[in-house]
Write a structure and sequence with these properties.
CATH architecture of the largest domain in chain A: Orthogonal Bundle
Distance between the termini of chain A: 60 Å
Strand content of chain A: under 5%
Helix content of chain A: 55-70%
GO molecular function, one term (chains A, B): DNA binding
Order of helices and strands of chain A: HHHHHHHHHH
Domain HTH tetR-type (chains A, B): 9-69
Radius of gyration of chain A: 19 Å
CATH superfamily of the largest domain in chain A: Tetracycline Repressor, domain 2
Oligomer: homodimer
CATH topology of the largest domain in chain A: Tetracycline Repressor, domain 2
Protein name (chains A, B): Transcriptional regulator, TetR family
Keywords (chains A, B): DNA-binding, Transcription, Transcription regulation
Number of helices of chain A: 10
Largest sheet of chain A: none
Largest interface: A-B, 44 and 45 residues
Pfam families (chains A, B): TetR_C_13, TetR_N
Chain lengths: 197, 197
DNA sequence: ATATTTTTATACCGCTCGTTAAGAAAACGA
DNA sequence: TCGTTTTCTTAACGAGCGGTATAAAAATAT
């Protein structure tokens, strides 16, 4: 298994988890290589050797973040009805952005605030657009099988949910408690269409 | 009116407007003094002479931004009914964050993404909390005069609106068109209580 | 005119940033 | 044991940052 050369003295998975935490808490630009490497428990050249430059490390961290902290998205998509899907997404998001012991908010929403010259904003925007597309497709299928009224617009429903979840991330970072976000999720569901008769 | 000394060769109001635009587009950290002073049409020492350091300039810019680009808040608060108030706020916000010729999004939401060591995040968070409080008080009065059902929670209603507007800012920066945001605003209004009988 | 005050323009400061060069250290294959 | 390969540590690089020292320029006051 091991080829020639000195073996790594650190666990790359644990180091990446540490990088996720720093990017989550500080954002892309706010996370310095010094803080990153320190949190990862390794020196800067080791970061470059194992993960590439800062932009590549960020993309790896985002991928890891999606796997570990956005599982509620796929959970929601698998719900039997569109309403349960929307409900699961909103409550799952509200819970994810207010996890005790983790940074408040959502890495995918807050790590890059404004469109920058580099490509990091585009990476996050694409990630968000992908999630929205998944829900739009889910609602399209729901309309096709009569689970949602035919006069509903699946893209508009998906955009409504993503807008709310983006707001949840901002509010969570502001210190809004989980219960408040869940109350907003509950209220928003009263604006979500019921199963077509 | 004019005392001794060489007079200013620039219009401080126009310079501050230019600074607002840069902070709006780039965020606080992303706006360098070089870009700021260049957009303001003056040299860096003139910025310090007229506006203080970067943090003070940012606070002045935020104040100007609220005056010039968040008038829809006070407009909404003056609406005769709570529903019209909420409606005016959501549509006014959706329009403000998608103004042609201006940066997409909201300076108060996006200029500082994550809680930083300096105080700029706190400045914006306080600004957002103030707006929320204004709406909570507005809805409290609405309940008192029977304009809203007595079993509604004014703070919960205000948080619902602020959450949506925060989401609008994020989505607008992502390129979501104004019509989509207005559609979400319309949908959200179907979750807002009607006047008590 | 001359002294005083304020703004102007240029150049520079110390610091932190992301990134890397250089060599010692630790594994392998022969 | 000896090269080879990879990772390790240390130290430094150039660039850009926020902020400022300096002195010329332009106004007023006497």
């Amino acid at each position: 298994m091991a080829g020639p050369g000195r073996p790594r003295a650190f666990d790359t998975d644990a180091a990446l988890d540490a990088a996720v935490e720093v990017f989550w808490r500080r954002g892309f630009a706010g996370a310095s290589l010094t803080e990153l490497s320190s949190a990862m428990g390794i020196n800067k050249p080791s970061v470059y050797g194992a993960f590439g430059d800062k932009a590549q490390l960020f993309q790896s961290a985002l991928h890891r973040y999606v796997e570990r902290n956005m599982g509620y998205v796929t959970d929601a998509l698998e719900q039997p009805t569109a309403r349960e899907c929307a409900q699961a997404f909103l409550t799952g998001n509200a819970r994810a952005v207010t996890m005790p012991g983790r940074p408040a908010g959502c890495l995918s929403v807050q790590a890059v605030a404004t469109p920058d010259d580099s490509g990091e904003y585009a990476v996050l925007a694409r990630n968000r657009a992908t999630v929205q597309q998944l829900f739009a497709d889910r609602f399209r299928r729901a309309i096709a099988v009569g689970d949602l009224p035919a006069d509903e617009d699946p893209d508009e429903l998906a955009t409504f949910l993503i807008t709310l979840s983006s707001g949840f991330a901002i509010r969570a970072a502001d210190g809004t408690p989980r219960e408040s976000l869940l109350a907003s999720a509950h209220r928003a569901m009263s604006a979500f269409p019921s199963t077509a008769t």
